[in-house]
Specification:
By secondary structure, this protein is α+β, with helices and mostly antiparallel strands. It has helices spanning 4-8, 56-76, 126-143, 160-173, 182-198, 200-206, 247-257, 275-289, 295-299, 301-322, 334-351, 353-362, and strands at 17-22, 30-36, 43-48, 100-102, 107-113, 118-119, 213-215, 224-227, 232-235, 242-244. The chain folds into 2 domains: 4-115, 2-Layer Sandwich (Phosphorylase Kinase, domain 1); 126-362, Aminoglycoside 3'-phosphotransferase, Chain: A, domain 2, CATH 3.90.1200.10. β8 and β9 form a beta hairpin. α7 (247-257) crosses α10 (301-322). Bound molecules: 2-acetamido-2-deoxy-1-O-phosphono-alpha-D-glucopyranose and magnesium ion.
Amino acid sequence: MKSLDEIAAHFAIEGEILAIKPLGNGLINDTYKIETAGSAPDYVLQRVNHNVFKDVELMQNNIEAVTRHIRGKLEAAGETDIDRKVLKFIPVKGGSKTYIHDAAEDRYWRVSVFIPDAVTVETVNAEYSYFCGKAFGNFEAMLSDIPDTLGETIPDFHNMELRSRQLREAVAADAAGRVNDPEVQAILKDLAEYDEEMCKAERLYREGVLPKRICHCDTKVNNMMFDKSGNVLCVIDLDTTMPSFVFSDFGDFLRTAANTVAEDSPEVDKVAFRMDIFKAFAKGYLESASCFLTPVEKENLPYAALLFPYMQAVRFFADYINGDTYYKIKYPEHNLVRTRNQVALFHSALSCVPEMKAYIESL
Ligand code: GN1
Ligand code: MG
């Protein structure tokens, strides 16, 4: 196997490499930090999981278009410190592509500039949540006039009908022999009760009343970078930036930020949907997204807050039933624990819907 140094040597990076160390806790790609000598920037080296992202060329084209467009907007607005406000991918030496395919090992790699003096967090308070809402709304607003046509890096990524079908297929195949367990049966029954309601976005889309826009589609709290004083710097992890419903960004942020515990906490009785986080995020989001949102999108934001815990429960559960082939796990029942957690979050959010609706209407 090639060393990380050999991989890094393909990219036009500045400075002498001192060390390459693991970074972050994503569930899909493998990420490392490249530390360099002197005043050269540090970098992020990533191995792209191409079982998940099957068209790396399309994905990097999307990311380059998105970062180019945002950079242009920031420059036009006279922003300073732009390299900390939008990601920058590094071309290969003597070329223009921003990734390499190591054919011998069938692995894809890319490098971006490491954003200095920035942090990601796993939890936010209401104040930060408001700023995150503004930042994600602004991200969508900036991309609303992107001239490039972006492809779907994972086709039908947030299509609930597809995710439900994948769960049904997993159950039918029962590849890991996990389906007959009484708890698994109980969860399946519970999820089935809400399936039709949760597939509403796809119906609205077919009826022509719900648009697709360029969305981030992985707005977990830890995909937002803050500076040391707590100001939002930028949105990272752009792999899934593609056409989707705005529900993706609104719902997935709240799925992680409004949960009182982490998405894989086994303490299911402690899971609850935090309305203070919902309100702060919705306020910030609507301040920057109102300029393009339609009434149908706005009135369905409470639905989005339900959809994402539900969809994530279905996805974790399908992976558990399939024998853990998609998400990285740390122990055998990890995906089941995640499922229980997301189901509990869904039910807690469900009980908050009247309050969510009243609040959104008041804004
Ligand atoms: C994955 O790669 P990461 O950890 O940011 C997943 C998201 C899930 C999330 C659950 C491409 O995100 O959709 O919401 O795990 N990304 C992909 O933690 O499937
Ligand atoms: Mg991530």
